[in-house]
Design a protein that fits this description.
With 290 residues, this protein is of the alpha/beta class. The chain is built from 13 helices and 5 strands. The structure holds adenosine-5'-triphosphate and magnesium ion (MG). The site of magnesium ion has 4 residues, from helix 2.
Length: 290
């Protein structure tokens, strides 16, 4: 990872449970390797799964900023190579470098596309080899005393290969944001730009009408609502070149109500059911308390 991703723990609204688990598995063991060994040795694989736009990638980026470890951010496509045998070598090199630069955290985003179920036909040779190599490497560092942690993120956990699922020992459900978390997202985003003037009742009203919205839906909603003052100024005939930043009013509840007409939730109830089923079957905690 070559640039600071600029995401901090506090930017992530809600998800207290996930943050706690990550701290336990990643941050503490790195600070006190002498305590976290033997029976207490932390798991080597962590899977974050849940509907799209709920902050999985954000958590990965926050770890990169907070953990004092070498951080590798891998998206599945960066390992795929069209040359047969090349991607396999890349995987070996990745784990090789990680073991030289311990402690290391390897974050694989969209891990389902890398480690999808292996099937006997219809799959090309090189992607199968890539998977096998990945599984072999993961097995290797699982047994040793090496300080390497693999974190995977996916919104299609049901497509993960069984063997990969086993190696990702802790599986955390990252649910849709709760009403408090949604309020926090609105507040954080608006405060960043100095546009926050909503009352507690306003926030409550917005939170009630955004049941089922994901974190990224909330972000889109705030984006749209914050256009409200601008649109109003145009309607009154102000030209964009003459518009003064100081004269613009803050974002109001009415802006949010207009935005709610435009921005709809992106996750269906049906899909949520799939995640919850998978969580009940394989998740580390069947009841997720946000
Ligand atoms: N809990 C949250 N707190 C604050 N912002 C959030 C939260 N969840 C999502 N967002 C917003 O949504 C955007 C997308 O989140 P992110 O990329 O982490 O989603 P994801 O879970 O990785 O989705 P996907 O499964 O589609 O990759 C973030 O950039 C952020 O602005
Ligand atoms: Mg993501």
């Amino acid at each position: 990872m070559d640039c600071d991703p600029n995401v901090r723990w506090d930017d992530i609204a809600g998800l207290h449970h996930a943050k706690k688990c990550v701290t336990e598995m990643v941050i503490w063991p790195l600070l006190r390797p002498d305590i976290f060994k033997g029976c207490r040795s932390p798991g080597r694989g962590l899977l974050l799964f849940g509907p799209p736009g709920t902050g999985k990638t954000m958590i990965g980026k926050a770890i990169a900023g907070e953990a004092k470890a070498t951080f590798f951010y891998i998206s599945a496509s960066s390992l795929a190579s069209k040359w047969v045998g090349d991607s396999e070598k890349l995987v070996r090199a990745l784990f090789g470098v990680a073991s030289c630069r311990q402690p290391a955290v390897i974050f694989v985003d969209e891990i389902d596309s890398l480690l999808s179920k292996r099937n006997s036909h219809g799959e090309n040779e090189s992607s199968r080899k890539l998977k096998t190599q990945f599984l072999v490497e993961m097995e290797g560092f699982d047994s040793g005393s090496e300080q390497i942690l693999l974190i995977g993120a996916t919104n299609r956990p049901q497509e993960l290969d069984e063997a990969a699922r086993r190696r990702l020992t802790k599986r955390l459900y990252i649910p849709l944001p709760s009403s408090e978390a949604r309020a926090l997202i609105i507040r954080n985003l608006l405060e960043k730009d100095g546009l926050f003037k909503l009352s507690t009742e306003d926030i409550d009203t917005i939170c009630k009408s955004t049941e089922g919205y994901s974190g990224s839906d909330m972000k889109n909603l705030v984006n749209d609502a914050s256009m409200g003052p601008l649109r109003e100024a145009f309607r009154q005939g102000t030209e964009i070149t003459k518009l003064k930043k100081e004269d613009m009013r803050a974002v109001t509840l009415q802006d949010f109500e207009n935005a709610l007409q435009e921005v709809r939730p992106s996750v269906s109830l049906n899909e949520l059911g799939t995640y919850e089923d998978w969580n009940n079957q394989f998740g580390s905690f069947s009841v997720s308390t946000d």
